[in-house]
Amino acid sequence: MAIARPLRSVLYIPGSKPRALDKARGLPVDAIIFDLEDAVSIEEKEAARETLAEALATGGYGARMKIVRINGLGTPWGADDAKAALNMDADAILMPKVSAPTDLDALAAITGDTPLWAMMETALGMLNAGQIATHPHLQGMVMGTNDLAKELQSRPRADRLGLQSGLGLCLLAAKAQGLAIIDGVYNAFKDEAGLDAECQQGRDMGFDGKTLIHPAQIDIANAAFSPSEADIDLARRQIEAFEAAEASGQGVAVVDGRIVENLHIVTARETLAKADAISAMMEG
């Protein structure tokens, strides 16, 4: 199941910072995670709810998807965050450190039918990803690679070798259920080449986009997770060749020396649909 809504760039914004919340209204980002958890100090936790609620009520975020990340229900702030988020103008609530479907059950007991997203950042969460993905209120997964690497005690590497098993398990789980799935953050926000390489890796694996920690990372993520002109051209030529082959009674076509079957046409149409959705968002 293809994800129609572009989610190439998903930027974390502290829910406690009015200036950052205001600046986000003008950024070319596909989605925003309004954070009440890691980006907010303990002293600001309660005030951040009111600051965020006011910003979302004011609006101005256009077509960007609005996701509120709450604190865990095991913290002193989680339950109140969840209750407050219900009354905010947001598209979904993001729960940190989801390790089992019962974690989402506990949140849904507060939030009802509100769409939920899950931070996938624990070893147990990786092992239970397939079950977590079947939760009836879940619409997306976000990889929490920093917390996962900490728990795994893996070393940082450009190829993210230590994280590959977890990334793959969550990808399989999300794709099997038609969920959105967003890659983890790249910490060195001034390292454009490193960010691009990691975005390309994530796109090659099948992620829908990347979470970002700084506005300077948006353009690189948007470019990496958008169909290129070459991708669009190939998709159009594949569809044209396949339709011509079908019209002549054949089940396959050949484009650029490669066999093109119906499964390739499904992908080609998804590529064009994604490009159209991105254009519509940019125009909007």
Structure characterization notes:
By secondary structure, the chain is α/β, with parallel strands linked by helices. Helix content is about 45%, strand content about 15%. It contains twelve helices and ten strands. The chain has helices spanning about 20-25, 45-60, 80-85, 100-110, 125, 130, 145-150, 165-175, 190-205, 220-225, 230-245, 260-284; strands at about 10-15, 30-35, 65-70, 90-95, 115-120, 140-145, 180-185, 210, 255, 260. The strands form two sheets. An eight-stranded parallel β-barrel has the order 1-2-3-4-5-6-7-8, surrounded by five helices. A two-stranded antiparallel ribbon has the order 9-10. Strand 9 and strand 10 (about 260) form a beta hairpin. Helix 11 (about 230-245) crosses helix 12. The model has no long low-confidence stretch (mean pLDDT about 95).
Mean pLDDT figure: 96
Question: What is the general shape?
Answer: globular
**Major sheet description:** 8 strands, parallel, barrel
How many helical elements? 12
The CATH class of the largest domain is: Alpha Beta
**Secondary structure: helix percent:** 40-55%
Low-confidence stretches: none
- Look at the helices and sheets and give the structural class: alpha/beta
Specify the CATH architecture of the largest domain.
Answer: Alpha-Beta Barrel
> CA-to-CA gap between the ends?
25 Å
SSE order, one letter for each helix or strand: EHEHEHEHEHHEHHEHEHHEEH
Q: Please give the number of β-strands.
A: 10
Q: What's the structural domain tally?
A: 2
Strand ordering within the main sheet:
1-2-3-4-5-6-7-8
* CATH homologous superfamily label of the largest domain: Phosphoenolpyruvate-binding domains
